[in-house]
Write a structure and sequence with these properties.
The chain contains eight helices and 47 strands. The protein is mainly beta. A hairpin with a 2-residue loop joins strand 42 and strand 43.
């Protein structure tokens, strides 16, 4: 308890000081409205900050500070014009740890100005969710943000819709962030995590003993984000302060946070809608929804067209509409990313752009493709503009190819063409992707989307995500649109957590322990009895075996060594070995465990002893995820690759080389036989395999004689065996002559 309280105290002191330097001292604490739902209780601040409680973990806030009785370190941010506008964390009554925002920005950040916050409306049903609306301004930038929070009882997630409107008379470019300092159930540490289905960053509980909790906290971008991050909480705040997330998910147990980022440019009077879900516990079945394209994307009054809508999250209840004078009929949902319809433009439709709007269901999530379709002026020729269909792309290293789309919008009169080319970033052509360049051509009247393909190289290297760029240039017959450059991120598939079945592997639990302990105890008992029964044993001819004529009191000794063992493997190395063997899995390894044993020895020469002992290495443990269908083959591979854990019978020669006074240098050389059991537990069954082998032991140590018969020592040993790899054993030693 002291450790937890102390860590919270210093963390709040440090970052509270930094935040105090970043904010105006006169700002007031936010007003708070609470949705008292089941299982989630959601506290919403007038500064767009949150705290959430989950009835499955009573009394513990799911964001840091976990004991915050109002709102905590979770909220929305706007970065524009070189300034960052954030919730008023410094005035939160229960403290904050968001000082990294000021560190990343390099100067004080600004506070979002509260305009209004509503009470709770609705009854908490699917048709009438609880709702709270918060309105804030980003200073004098003209950006006004309206946040609507919705919650339906029984769900382990809530939804949020953030509408940002440019009330200024000039265009405004900005970045929006949604981020939090995660407190996973009852623990401020977790494994950063990304759900690959929905590109949702967050965290999951760290391993505790043999158990792995399935508790997740995720920030779900129902409006697809341009970037994300899941790593240490302070790193998250610094990235937001610096104005760019890095699409990196750290692979270690740490005090973690997560964030989403959207990049937007709004004309005067225009608005954009960003939708998210935030979940607690099991990963909910809510997908992204977005409309990315309609093709053809223009037409003349009185015209009817067969159009194709593209995006993600298209399901049975999805619907679409276009603005005044344009109707859709005969909607057919081909799959989750494609729909077709008949589009009809009224004869008196006013020329100009229209938003294409849609929803995954009647209650959302919703998406808007701004100015996605244009009604053309029937009198004027329209050559249109050519541009990429997105400003950023992300592709898994194992996808093989990436298809880039180029659209012709706002008209299709006359022939047109545009040149495309790739350029290196951190990703290099030839090793990470295939360089591509060429020309796309449109005929007169052709408004269809054109595509080109880039090859993606699937290497075996464990590396960070890498990027390259795609550029359009030299447009003829049409203008070059705003999206003429795009960044492509290649997501490494050699170190990330794979979706699929979860399993637990361990190697240890040999069968030598009890027999060897019994044998050593019997040897010690016989040795002690031999001293007392020397004469009777001599008459029976047994004294020579148990009490040699050259032996005296103190020639024999017994000892105990205790410490920890550490294997030479890493989680990434184990993952690579398993994938090289044909298993589509990833692994997290924990191979440092208690180790030690008992031994007896004989002072054979003045400076040399012989020893016989038993050692136990504890267990090597790993979390395995991915395709675990071939469990028998996988457990065999784990038996070869996991560091050995189990029991060992060791015979060694130990030297005693005096250093000074009672201190001696004690190198050890020996050989051992080990036995171990490897086990893989999946949801369906448990697979096991027992193996054994021989190896060599080389050790270095120092010994301190405390009295004539007692010694303390420190030892480090390197043990190497075919089939068991290399282990290090570090122990504290106590032994006594008898």
């Amino acid at each position: 308890m002291f450790t937890v309280v102390s860590r919270h105290f210093w963390r709040l002191c440090l970052f509270g000081l930094l935040a105090a330097l970043a904010l105006d001292a006169g700002a007031a604490a936010p007003q708070v409205t609470t949705i008292s739902g089941n299982p989630l209780t959601i506290r919403i601040g007038s500064d767009t900050s949150f705290q959430i409680l989950n009835a499955e973990n009573p009394g513990v806030g799911q964001m840091f500070p976990d004991n915050a009785e109002q709102t905590a370190d979770l909220g929305w941010f706007i970065a524009t014009g070189g300034e960052l506008y954030a919730p008023n964390f410094e005035e939160h009554p229960d403290g904050t740890a968001t000082g990294g925002l000021a560190l990343g920005l390099g100067k004080p950040y600004q506070v979002l100005t509260p305009v209004s916050i509503s009470g709770v409306t609705g009854s908490g049903t699917a048709n009438d969710p609880y709702r709270v609306t918060v309105v804030t301004d980003a200073g004098a930038t003209g950006l006004r943000a309206t946040l609507q929070v919705s919650y339906v009882n029984g769900r382990n997630y809530y939804s949020a819709s953030w509408t940002v409107r440019n009330t200024d008379n000039m265009p405004r470019t900005f970045k929006a962030f949604f981020a939090g300092d995660i407190y996973l159930a009852n623990d401020d540490s977790g494994f950063p995590y990304v759900d690959t289905t929905s590109s949702s960053p967050g965290g999951r509980n760290c391993t505790e003993g043999d158990q792995q909790s399935d508790y997740f906290i995720l920030l779900i971008p129902q409006t697809p984000a341009d970037a994300y991050a899941a790593k240490g909480y302070s790193e998250i705040w610094q990235l937001i302060g610096a104005g760019q997330l890095d699409n990196v998910v750290r692979d270690e147990c740490l005090d973690n946070g997560a964030a989403l980022q959207w990049n937007r440019t709004l004309d005067a009077g225009a608005s954009t809608v960003l939708q998210t879900g935030t979940s607690f516990g099991a990963v909910p079945d809510i997908a992204q929804f977005n409309i990315t394209e309609i093709a053809p994307n223009s037409g003349r009054p009185g015209q009817s067209l067969d159009v194709t809508l593209s995006g993600i999250g298209f399901f049975g209840g999805s619907g679409f509409e276009i603005g005044d004078g344009v109707t859709l009929s005969n909607l057919h949902l081909v799959n989750g990313t494609t729909a077709t319809a008949r589009l009809t433009i009224a004869a008196d439709a006013t020329p100009g752009p229209r938003d294409v709007r849609g929803g995954q269901s009647a209650e959302g999530p919703f998406a808007t493709l701004e100015n996605g379709f244009t009604v053309l002026d029937p009198e004027a020729p329209q050559n249109g503009s050519l541009q990429l269909n997105a400003a950023t792309y992300s592709v898994n290293e194992g996808a093989g190819t990436l298809t880039i789309s180029v659209t012709r919008s706002d008209g299709s009169d006359g022939a047109a063409s545009v040149h495309y080319a790739t350029a290196n970033g951190t990703a290099q052509a030839g090793s990470d992707y295939g360089a591509a360049s060429g020309t796309l051509d449109w005929a007169d009247g052709d408004g269809a989307t054109k595509t080109f393909t880039i090859a993606i190289t699937n290497d075996a290297d464990i590396e960070s995500n890498e990027t390259f760029t795609v550029t359009l240039s030299a447009a003829t017959g049409a203008t070059l649109g705003a999206r003429s450059n795009a960044t492509v991120t290649i997501v490494d598939n050699d170190s990330q957590q794979l979706p699929g079945e979860e399993g637990k592997a361990r190697r240890g639990g040999g069968a030598l322990g009890l027999p060897l302990l019994a044998g050593l105890a019997l040897l010690l008992a016989l040795r002690r009895a031999a001293r007392r029964l020397a004469a009777p044993l001599a008459a029976l001819g047994l004294a020579a075996a148990l009490l040699p004529s050259t032996a005296a009191a103190g020639d024999w000794y017994a000892g105990l060594r205790a410490g920890f063992s550490d294997g030479s493997s890493t989680g990434r190395g184990l993952t690579q070995e398993l994938r090289d063997a044909g298993h589509d899995v990833s692994a997290r390894l924990d191979d440092r465990h208690p180790g030690g044993g008992l031994y007896v020895g004989y002072h054979w020469l003045p400076l040399a002893d012989v020893e016989l002992g038993w050692l136990r290495f504890g267990q090597s443990k790993a979390q395995i995820s991915g395709d675990l269908g071939d469990g028998r083959a996988l457990v065999r591979e784990l038996a070869d690759e996991l560091p050995v854990g189990g029991d060992m019978a060791l015979a060694a020669l130990r030297l005693r080389l005096p250093i000074t006074g009672p201190v001696a240098f004690t190198p050890r050389f020996g050989a051992y036989w080990w036995t171990s059991r490897t086990e893989l537990r999946t949801a369906q069954r448990t697979y096991s395999r027992r193996d054994d082998g021989v190896g060599v032991d080389v050790g270095l140590g120092v010994s301190l004689t405390l009295a004539r018969r007692f010694r303390l020592g420190l030892n480090g040993e390197l043990l190497r065996s075919h089939g068991a790899g290399t282990q290090q054993l570090y122990t504290l030693q106590f032994e006594s002559d008898f």
